[in-house]
């Protein structure tokens, strides 16, 4: 009987598991790839978030710049309007010297009239002069006064024009400056220049108020004083007018006093005009300085609107 081989009776050694190392290696690779993918995703999210922030910032900056340019345009319009008021102010100042000239002319005419009336009363009520020379002097005086008295009689039939107060109104617009100011300007130098112009405009308005006040109050006072003098003369006249020139003798002292008062008023107006002239010169100097600043700022505004200064 044949015996089975010894080797065949022994148990077989275990077989190696196929692909185990390769599977471990694959797992390691997949984890690495997953880590890289997650990192890329995170980076993309970060970049996207940064880009969104930058886009939002760009949009905000753009809106802010557009608002800044719109503010500059508003200032440009307001300042050009204010600059155009120079001619209007000069037009309002025009009546001032004419009023003074008219007042002095009227005062001279009133003085001549009262002087003539006083002389005519003297000539008509005193004895005739004894000398030919004195008689000729009286005749010449009456001849000189006749047209003055006639003209006064005609003027009394006309309505006197009342004194008209002046109104010098710069009518400066300040809405933009009042509501917005210049603190938000990215071009700080331009902001300072614009603020200086509005400061000058305020000084102009204050000087205008001085001139208006002095002119109007002075002439209102003078008008009141002259009305009082006229009323006093009317009251002193005989009712129904003098039937005889001798009835005017009692008012001769009044005529002399009123003549002096009118002369005083004339000199007072000359003094007032000299003060007003000085203040008007100060006003014009302010307007000249403001005009120079406006011309410079208009150019700066045009350049800033075309190429706005960016925020630092």
Would you write up a description of this structure?
The protein is mainly α. Among the domains are: about 30-65; about 90-110 and about 170-305. Helices cover about 75% and strands about 0% of the residues. The chain is rod-shaped and about 140 Å long. Mean pLDDT is about 80; it is low at about 1-10.
Query: Percent of residues in helical segments?
Result: over 70%
The parts where pLDDT drops under 50 for at least 5 residues are: 1-9
Number of strands: 0
Give the N-to-C terminal Cα separation: 110 Å
SSE pattern, N- to C-terminal: HHHHHH
Tell me the strand percentage band: under 5%
Tell me the major beta sheet: none
Provide tags for this entry:
mainly alpha, 0% strand, disordered N terminus, rod-shaped, 312 residues
């Amino acid at each position: 009987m044949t015996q089975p081989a010894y080797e065949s009776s022994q148990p077989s050694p275990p077989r190696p598991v196929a692909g185990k190392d390769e599977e471990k290696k694959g797992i390691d690779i997949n984890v690495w790839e997953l880590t890289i993918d997650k990192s890329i995703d995170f980076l993309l999210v970060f970049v996207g978030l940064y880009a969104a922030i930058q886009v939002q910032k760009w949009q905000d900056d753009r809106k802010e710049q557009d608002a800044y340019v719109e503010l500059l345009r508003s200032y440009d319009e307001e300042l050009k309007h204010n600059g155009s008021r120079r001619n209007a102010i000069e037009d309002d100042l025009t009546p001032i010297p004419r009023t003074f000239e008219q007042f002095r002319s009227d005062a001279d005419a009133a003085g001549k009239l009262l002087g003539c009336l006083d002389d005519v009363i003297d000539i008509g009520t005193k004895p005739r002069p004894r000398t030919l020379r004195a008689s000729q002097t009286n005749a010449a005086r009456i001849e000189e006064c006749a047209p003055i008295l006639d003209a006064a009689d005609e003027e009394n039939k006309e309505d006197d024009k009342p004194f008209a107060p002046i109104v010098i109104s710069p009518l400066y617009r300040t809405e933009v400056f009042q509501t917005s100011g210049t603190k938000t300007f990215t071009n700080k130098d331009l902001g300072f220049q614009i603020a200086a112009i509005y400061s000058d405009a305020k000084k102009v308005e204050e000087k205008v108020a001085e001139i208006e006040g002095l002119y109007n109050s002075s002439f209102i006072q003078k008008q009141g004083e002259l009305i009082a003098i006229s009323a006093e003369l009317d009251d002193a006249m005989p009712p129904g007018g003098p039937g005889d020139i001798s009835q005017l003798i009692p008012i001769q002292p009044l005529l002399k006093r009123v003549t002096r008062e009118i002369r005083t008023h004339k000199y007072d107006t000359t003094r007032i005009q000299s003060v007003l002239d000085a203040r008007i010169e100060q006003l014009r100097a302010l307007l000249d300085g403001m005009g120079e600043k406006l011309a410079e700022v208009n150019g700066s505004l045009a350049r800033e609107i075309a190429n706005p200064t960016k925020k630092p």
